[in-house]
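Q: Sequence in, structure out?
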Amino acid sequence: MRASWHRRWVGYLSVAMLIALIAAACAPDGTTDVGGESPTTTQSASTTTRQPSSSTTTESLLQHPYGGVAIVGDDQEPPTLNIFVPGGDSSVAARIGQGYLAGAQEIDGATLELIPELLSELPTIENGGVVVRPDGTMTVKYRIRDDAVWSDGSPVTGSDFQYTLDLILDPDLPMNRAVYDGIVTSAYGEKTFEFTLSRPTVQHELLFNTVVPRHAVEGTNFLADWNDVMWPSAGPFVLREWAKGEYIALERNDNYWKVDPETGQQLPYLDEIRFRFIGETEALINAFKARELDVIQPPPDPGTIQELQALEPAGARVEVLAGPVWEHLSFQFGPARLERNPNSCNESLAMRRAVAHAIDRSVITDEILAGQVEPMDSYVEAYSPAWATPAWAKYEADVAQAREAYAAAVTETGKECAVVFTTTSNNDARSTMAELFASMFEAAGIPYSNELEDSQLFVGDTLSAGRLDVAEWAWIGSPGLSGLVASFDLFDPEAPPPIGSNYYRWGSDGAAGVDERSARFATLRDEVNATVDPERIAELVAEAESIIAGELVIIPLYARLVTAAVWADEIGGYKHNPTQATDTWNIEEWYRADR
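A: Exactly. Output:
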């Protein structure tokens, strides 16, 4: 039996993914609008040309110009700037926070892999940063960059990491501390920090994404004092002003410690970044068209994408990427499915194969996403594309195979097998999907009906109780080994709700589908959570996905689009990042291309 702290540990990730599920069900773009429309006036670009004295050669200074302002539009406004407290986990807080927050690691927008930020390198077994000890514990060692300093000139130290840990573990603060519960000891030096976990796990990758400066925050009221202002920055900018309902302005951090690896120039290039809040999509698009905004990340509606792409001859660049939110078709294995559909035959693999061959995923992506992305053949694509295998490619749309499999299911179960499809009714893409399914199942001769529900009911009582037959919702993937390891929890036979995230109830006690394959998956899940060897994790991930695909627990459909647009003739260095790092991940490298 697993130790209780380990269940709490992975519970942190499960909660994060469930939050994504709920958000994904509430709106087509997976977000909740909280900002209001702001005035259309804007500040013109600054003419200041400030060139940091630490640059080494005249030649390098000429490669990218310094000075100016970039104006970023967003359809939400953060409720707080403190990402550690309730409300601070919003996507807009993360987008703005890239300008002044810093941690052990960040997500590279080019590779979508974890890279060091405040650290000189990420700890691994190979470089000695991760050490598995004979007593079963694991020590992780950080080496902090010598040149990393706060905006007030104080060095970033191991004491700052220790203070961050102490804050998170403070029982009087409303922190999500489950991930950190496994830390049994810690120690720090001027430029070092290390901690020991009670067992080996790659979940250490998730820790210390943001570090708090002890010298500035200690002795303050952490809940009350850091909502509208921000502690000293270890990022490229510092907070200058928050005009509530209108904008947040960041200005250059003159003590920023990074240089551009391509040019050798001191970063950042810009004098200021201004985030304007425009709550209505149409107003956001119109402000971009009028060049009142330099960068936007609008909802990924195909019509909006085409509208923005029409601006490309005038100097705009539109980047449409497959994001981490992945939609999927699910089968319910628990007994409550019969409340929804007495003729549910999900216990039959033949029936699940009939469904897989009846639906045409290419038609779905063409109709819903205007062909902007390909159907997913692997859910691993949403976590680490390099490790994905085409596990679901064998389930091509084939009416003849669907009819044959359906007939086999009817014979096997002795029931008039039928499909009742449920998803959120207040999501246009999913409503369209339900309509497409109707004609697909009719062509395959499979009885089918839609029972769509309001999102609050769907993600509340319905999903929690398993009163579903065949359903559709979204999960969110995250880069790094830790995200892949966390994905095992979605199908863990030993962890149906309320103790876990196996909402399918596949392999769980009292549900259909309990056999040696689900038992094997449970074994894989235990092993992957106690493994830090990347090669072994890759093997476990491949075997686990093979089981989920072979048993047809789910059918991946597509990754949601993440759209961004930039006036490329005005802003250089912009590179969209579809992960939770947001498109401002390299904001220090942006520059005015029109100077």
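The first strand starts at residue 69 and ends at 74.
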